[in-house]
Design a protein that fits this description.
Elements: E1 2-6, H1 9-18, E2 23-27, E3 56-57, E4 63-64, H2 70-84, E5 88-91, H3 97-109, E6 118-121, H4 129-137, H5 144-171, H6 180-198, E7 203-213, E8 216-225, E9 228-230, E10 248-249, H7 253-265, E11 269-281, H8 289-300, H9 304-316, E12 318-319, E13 325-326, H10 341-355, H11 388-391, H12 397-412, E14 418-431, E15 434-447, E16 471-473, E17 485-496, H13 505-515, H14 523-532, E18 536-539, E19 542-545, H15 547-559, H16 566-580, H17 586-594, H18 608-618, E20 624-628, E21 635-639, E22 648-651, E23 659-661, H19 673-684, E24 688-692, E25 699-705, E26 708-713, E27 726-728, H20 740-747, E28 751-755, E29 762-768, E30 771-776, E31 779-782, H21 796-803, E32 815-822, E33 829-835, E34 838-842, E35 847-849, H22 861-870, H23 875-901
Parallel strand pairs: 1-2, 1-5, 5-6, 9-10, 16-17
Antiparallel strand pairs: 3-4, 7-8, 7-17, 8-9, 8-15, 11-14, 11-16, 12-13, 14-15, 18-19, 20-21, 21-22, 22-23, 24-25, 25-26, 26-27, 28-29, 29-30, 30-31, 32-33, 33-34, 34-35
Length: 902
C-alpha cells in the first residue's frame, strides 16, 4: 500500500478518485508543526534561554524550535500508524513554498527517514487525472532551497513580529502587534488617509452638451474658451487648492452659466475637426492571484478572502454526479501568467470552433513579478472545453460566477486584438464674442476580437459617425437641415477636486503587488489581519485606518523607519526569492536583518536589535496632530488611552476643560480643528441635566462617551465602589429629544414582557453595550430598529420571534460560517466558525482548527466529526466533565473482576 499525504480532506477525496486500490490518500489537515504560539507551548528545555520567547536560537544559526501543536498530535500519531502499515510514502502537498515546507515538516514529524520506506515528493498545479498520473511518473525529492526560503520567511516574520510588538506594548499600549507585511499594509492605508486630510479641494466649472446624430445620443464637453484650455482637476494643487499655472482658463460659476446660455444662442455650431485613428485593444493576461482577487472584487463584489475560499474549492474538485470528481481550475496561489501548451491548444480549439479562426491569436505573456516562484502557470480552467454553463450545473452560484470570469479571462487572453476606429470631434462655436470649442471622444469597434468574451473592464465608449463641416442645430431646425447634428441640451456643470480615494481591499492588494510586497499566499491573510487587529476598518467597501492604526503607524515610522519602508520590505521578498532559487543564504540573510553588520544598507545603522534598543530608549507615546487652537496657539492632538482604546482629543497639556473623547467611528481625515474644539467645548460645559428623578431626588444626566450618548442617575463618586445607574441611548434616537418621561422609562429597564409560551421563563427587554436587545434564560437577540423595533414598546410576541432566530456570533473574532448539523453520537450542533486564528469547527465541547489551505465552507459533517475526534477537550469543558467521568470508572470496577471468571 502506498500512502499519499495531502493537506485537506477535499483534495484527498478528489485525488483518491484517480488512484487504484494500491493507494491510500489522507489529509494532514494543513500544517502539523510550527513555532510555539505563546509561553504555554514553549518547550521546557529552552525556557531558560534568552531567546525562548522567539523560539529561534539567534545565537546558533537562527535555528528554529518547532513543536507539534496540541490540535495536531493525534493526527500525527494516526499518520505514523498509517505509514507503518504502508510500503511507500508519497508527499503531494501544494507546489508552492508553503506546500514544500508542509511536506518537509511531515517528514520530520513522522520520522519518515527512520522508517526505511521509499519516500517521494510529487507536485502538480491542477488536480486532474492526467496531472496526477504525470506527477506520479515524475517523482522528485523535497526541494531544500524552497524549504529554506519558507523557513526564512517564517523566522523573519517571527523576529520582526515579536521584537517590534514588544516595543509597542511598552511604548504605545498592551496587546498590540506588528508584522513585517501587515505593518507596511497599514502604513499604506494610513498615509492615504493623511493625504486625504491634507488635501484642499477646489471648485471649477465646465459645459456639457448632449448631442444626437442619426438617433444616437453622445456627449461633448467644453475644452477651450477664448483660445485657452479649460482647467480640469489635474490643474489644481492638492495641497493648496489653487490653480497651478496661468495658461489655462479657470471657469467660475457665473461665467459658466453665461457661456452655456451663449452656446445655445449662437447655434449653429460647426464641426471644425474630426480626427480618426485606427487603434487596437489588447486583452489582459490570464489571472494571477492578485488580479483574480481584484477582478472578483470589482465584477462580483467578493472580498479577497471569499475569492480564495471559492477558488480553493474549485481547485480541489467537484463531483459531477456520475462518480467523477476533478479539479476545475489550476492552483490559485500564483504570480505566473504562463499557460501550458495543452491549455494553449485547448484555447485555439474553443475559440476557432465558437467564433472562427480570425478570432484566435497565439499569445505568451510576461508578468511584472521578477521571480514568479509560487507556481508555474496562471490560474485557468483545467479543461477549457468545460464551459461556464456546463460547470454551473455542478457548483454553487458563487463558484459558478468565479469560474466564469476565470474562463472568460483565459479564453480572451488567446484571442485577437479588438480593432477600433478612435474618433475625436471638435465643435466650434464662434460668434458675437464667443470663441468656444467643445470636444467629443469615442470609438467605433470595427472588429470585436477578444471583446466577445471580455469583462466590462475592457469595453470602450462608442461614438456615431461625424464629418467635418457638419452643423449642430436646435431640435426644431433639424428637419430643415438634413444631415445636421442636433443639440438636445447643454448645462453648466460644477466639479470639485477630490482627495485620493481610500483603498479598497482589491486596490490595496494591487498596491502591495506593485510595490513588490508580499506574495500570492499572503495577500488575503494580510487584509484580514489588519482589520481583525483593529488597525483598519471598513467604511462601505473602503478601508480607513482607526486612531489605533494611525498611532501605531506613526510610532513605527518614527522609530523603525527602515523596517516599515516599502522598498525595504520589497527587498526582503527579493532575497527570499533568491534563497528559493539557490542564489542566497538563509542564515546570512537573517543575521544581517537581525544583528546588522558593517556592510548593512540599513539607514538606522544596524539590524533589528539595534532599532529595538533605540526605540525602547528614545521612543515616545505617539500624538496624532489635529491642528492648532487659533486663539491660544496651543497644539491639538489625538492620543490613546492607556489600554490602547478610547482615543481622546487633547489641547495643549490637557487637564480639565482641555480634553474630549473622540466619537466612535470618527474618521481622522474629517477630524478638523473646528470639530475638535467643538467637542472640547461640549465636554467643558458639563453634562446636561434632563430632570430630577421623582423617587430618588437625584439628577438625571445626559452624557456622551466614546461609544455614544448615555443617561446617568446621580453623581459619580470616585471614592465609592458603587457606580451610578446608566443606560445607553439607542443610536436611532436623537439624544436631544429625550425628556424626563422618556429618561425615566430608559432608566427603568430591563422591562419584563411576560413569560415565554414554551419554557415559561421570563422574557425581558433592555439596552446593553451593543444596543437594545431581548433576553430569555441567558439567550439574547438584538432588536432591529430598521424593522421598527423599540426597546420601550417591543411586544412579547415579537421578542419570542426574535429569540427563535439563529444566534449570530458577535464581533470579528467569531463568525458563524456554516451550520453542519448535529453530531451523530452526542447530538450537539456542529458549526464552522471564523476565529481570530482562522476557521475552525466546534461542537461546544471541542474546537478543531481547519487547514488554512482548504475552504471552510466545503467541510462536511463527516469531516468535522473526524476532526473533533482528534481534538483536545476545551479546558473549561474538561473541568465540568471531570466528575461524571470519575463516577463512571468507579462503577466499572466490579465488571472488570467478573470478566476473567466468565
Amino acid at each position: 500500500m502506498k500512502l499519499v499525504i495531502v493537506e485537506s480532506p477535499a483534495k484527498a477525496k478528489t485525488i483518491e478518485k484517480f488512484l487504484g486500490k494500491d493507494y491510500r490518500v489522507v489529509a494532514s489537515f494543513g500544517h502539523i508543526r510550527d513555532l510555539p504560539q505563546g509561553k504555554a507551548e514553549v518547550p521546557a528545555s529552552i525556557k531558560d534561554k534568552s531567546w525562548a520567547a522567539l523560539s529561534v536560537n539567534v545565537d546558533n544559526d537562527f535555528e528554529p524550535v518547532y513543536i507539534i501543536p496540541p490540535d495536531s498530535k493525534k493526527r500525527v500519531a494516526e499518520l505514523k500508524k498509517l505509514l507503518k502499515d504502508s510500503d511507500e510514502l508519497i508527499l503531494a502537498t501544494d507546489e508552492d513554498r508553503e506546500g514544500e515546507a508542509i511536506s518537509w515538516h511531515l517528514l520530520q514529524a513522522l520520522d519518515a527517514d527512520k522508517s526505511k520506506k521509499a519516500i517521494s515528493r510529487i507536485a502538480f498545479h491542477e488536480i486532474t487525472k492526467s496531472a496526477i498520473q504525470e506527477a506520479l511518473a515524475n517523482p522528485r525529492q523535497i526541494n531544500d532551497e524552497m524549504v529554506q526560503a519558507q523557513e526564512g520567511r517564517r523566522i523573519l516574520d517571527r523576529l520582526f513580529g515579536y521584537r517590534v510588538s514588544e516595543v509597542l506594548w511598552k511604548k504605545v499600549a498592551p496587546k498590540l502587534s506588528a508584522g513585517r507585511v501587515q505593518s507596511v499594509a497599514v502604513r499604506l492605508v494610513v498615509e492615504r488617509e493623511e493625504a486625504r486630510r491634507a488635501f484642499r479641494n477646489a471648485l471649477y466649472w465646465d459645459i456639457e452638451a448632449e448631442l444626437e446624430a442619426e438617433g444616437k445620443p453622445f456627449k461633448a464637453a467644453l475644452v477651450e474658451l477664448g483660445g485657452k484650455r479649460l482647467a480640469s482637476g489635474k490643474d489644481f494643487d492638492p495641497d493648496t487648492g489653487e490653480l497651478k499655472g496661468e495658461k489655462v482658463h479657470w471657469l467660475q460659476a457665473e461665467q459658466a452659466q453665461r457661456v452655456a446660455t451663449d452656446l445655445r444662442a449662437n447655434l449653429p455650431w460647426t464641426v471644425a475637426r474630426v480626427e480618426q485613428k485606427e487603434a487596437k485593444l489588447r486583452p489582459y493576461p490570464p489571472f494571477i492571484t492578485s488580479t483574480l482577487q481584484q477582478a472578483a472584487s470589482s465584477l462580483l463584489g467578493f472580498t479577497p478572502d471569499r475569492t480564495m475560499r471559492i477558488a480553493q474549492r474549485l481547485y480541489e474538485g467537484e463531483d459531477f454526479g456520475n462518480g467523477e470528481r476533478e479539479g476545475l481550475i489550476t492552483y490559485m496561489r500564483t504570480d505566473s501568467v504562463t499557460l501550458s501548451e495543452r491549455a494553449l491548444g485547448q484555447a485555439k480549439d474553443v475559440i476557432s470552433g465558437a467564433y472562427g479562426e480570425r478570432y484566435h491569436q497565439w499569445r505568451t505573456y510576461k508578468g511584472k513579478t521578477k521571480n514568479a516562484q509560487e507556481a508555474h502557470e496562471a490560474i485557468r480552467p483545467t479543461d477549457l472545453h468545460r464551459t461556464p454553463e456546463t460547470v454551473a450545473k455542478f457548483v454553487s452560484e458563487e463558484a459558478a460566477k468565479l469560474y466564469r470570469i476565470i474562463w472568460n479571462r483565459t479564453i480572451a487572453s488567446q484571442m485577437a486584438d479588438a480593432e477600433l476606429l478612435k474618433t475625436t470631434a471638435d465643435f466650434q462655436a464662434k460668434a458675437d464674442g464667443l470663441d468656444a470649442t467643445l470636444r467629443a471622444n469615442g470609438s467605433v469597434v470595427t472588429f470585436d476580437g477578444f471583446l466577445k468574451v471580455a469583462d466590462s473592464a475592457q469595453q470602450d465608449t462608442l461614438l456615431p459617425e461625424i464629418k467635418e463641416g457638419q452643423q449642430v442645430v436646435a431640435p426644431g431646425e433639424a428637419k430643415a437641415n438634413p444631415g445636421a447634428l442636433t443639440l438636445i441640451n447643454e448645462q453648466a456643470v460644477e466639479h470639485e477636486t477630490k482627495p485620493p480615494s481610500r483603498f479598497t481591499e482589491a486596490s490595496l492588494i494591487k498596491a502591495l503587488e506593485d510595490e513588490g510586497i508580499g506574495r500570492p499566499s499572503t495577500y488575503a491573510p494580510t487584509i484580514m489581519t489588519i482589520q481583525s487587529r483593529g488597525y483598519v476598518r471598513k467604511i462601505g467597501s473602503a478601508l480607513a485606518p482607526t486612531i489605533l492604526g494611525i498611532a501605531v503607524t506613526r510610532f513605527l515610522r518614527d522609530n523603525f523607519p527602515e523596517h516599515v519602508e516599502l522598498q525595504f520590505t520589497a527587498r526582503m521578498e527579493d532575497i527570499l526569492d533568491d534563497i528559493s532559487n539557490g542564489r542566497g543564504n538563509r542564515s546570512e540573510f537573517l543575521r544581517r536583518f537581525y544583528f546588522g553588520d558593517a556592510n548593512s544598507e540599513g539607514k538606522s545603522g544596524g539590524g533589528l536589535v539595534a532599532a529595538v534598543e533605540r526605540a525602547m530608549e528614545e521612543g515616545t507615546f505617539p500624538r496624532i496632530p489635529v491642528g492648532e487652537d487659533p486663539e491660544s496657539g496651543e497644539p491639538i492632538v489625538v492620543r490613546l488611552g492607556r489600554s490602547g482604546s478610547s482615543p481622546f482629543i487633547q489641547r495643549g497639556e490637557g487637564g480639565e476643560g482641555n480634553t474630549a473623547s473622540v466619537p466612535d467611528g470618527q474618521s481622522y481625515d474629517e477630524l478638523s480643528t473646528e470639530l475638535a474644539l467643538e467637542l472640547i467645548a461640549e465636554r467643558a460645559k458639563g453634562p446636561k441635566v434632563i430632570g430630577i428623578h421623582p423617587e430618588t431626588g437625584q439628577n438625571i444626566y445626559l452624557l456622551k462617551g466614546p461609544f455614544g450618548h448615555y443617561m446617568q442617575l446621580g453623581e459619580t463618586d470616585p471614592e465609592s465602589k458603587t457606580k451610578p445607574k446608566r443606560t445607553g441611548v439607542p443610536k436611532d434616537v436623537d439624544p436631544e429629544s429625550i425628556d424626563l418621561e422618556k429618561a425615566l422609562q430608559y432608566l427603568a429597564l430591563p422591562r419584563e414582557l411576560g413569560k415565554h409560551p414554551e419554557t415559561g421563563n421570563k422574557v425581558k427587554a433592555s439596552i446593553g453595550p451593543y444596543g437594545p436587545y431581548v433576553m430569555c434564560n441567558k439567550e439574547y437577540r438584538s432588536l432591529k430598529p430598521d424593522d421598527g423595533d423599540d426597546v420601550l414598546t417591543v411586544t412579547l410576541e415579537r421578542a419570542v420571534h426574535l429569540l427563535s432566530q439563529p444566534k449570530a456570533v458577535r464581533g470579528s473574532t467569531k463568525k458563524v460560517l456554516k451550520d453542519l448539523g448535529k453530531h451523530p453520537e452526542t447530538g450537539d450542533p456542529i458549526e464552522v466558525l471564523d476565529g481570530r486564528y482562522g476557521a475552525y469547527v466546534t461542537d461546544g465541547n471541542k474546537n478543531a482548527t481547519l487547514p488554512k489551505t482548504g475552504d471552510p465552507l466545503a467541510v462536511t459533517l463527516e469531516e468535522a466529526v473526524e476532526l473533533l475526534a482528534n481534538a483536545p477537550e476545551r479546558k473549561g469543558k474538561a473541568k465540568r466533565k471531570a466528575k461524571p467521568k470519575a463516577k463512571a470508572k468507579a462503577k466499572a470496577k466490579p465488571k472488570a473482576k467478573k470478566k476473567p471468571e466468565a
